[in-house]
């Protein structure tokens, strides 16, 4: 029953337990995908310069000077901070999946 009503009066799709149950019932590709996201997050925290080098190569042809787009030290610190938040979210999702 996709539209069953829970005790709280909200549809099951709006209920947190329903969302967790739907996520845990599903696709076997979710855990490997989350592991890939965790690796990407670790790279962003440990070596954000590697991500910039990949991005610099993608900018060639439509950006006049791709070397000028490199972040400053504060920019890299912000990338690391965002990476930590991203990793926390991925780890939380991975824990709820297992």
Give a short synopsis of this structure.
The chain is an all-alpha fold and 98 residues long. 65% of the residues lie in helices and 0% in strands.
Topology:
Blueprint: H1 16-25, H2 30-46, H3 48-59, H4 73-97
What is the approximate shape?
elongated
Please state the structural category. mainly alpha
Distance between the termini: 25 Å
The number of helical elements comes to 4
Number of strands: 0
The helix content is 55-70%
Quote the beta fraction: under 5%
Order of helices and strands: HHHH
Radius of gyration equals 19 Å
Q: Detail the poorly predicted runs.
A: none
Average pLDDT, all residues: 82
Characterize the biggest β-sheet.
none
What would you note in describing this structure?
- The protein is mainly α and about 100 residues long.
- About 65% of the residues lie in helices and about 0% in strands.
- It is built from four helices and no strands.
- The longest helix has 25 residues, at about 75-95.
Annotation keywords:
mainly alpha, 98 residues, elongated, single chain
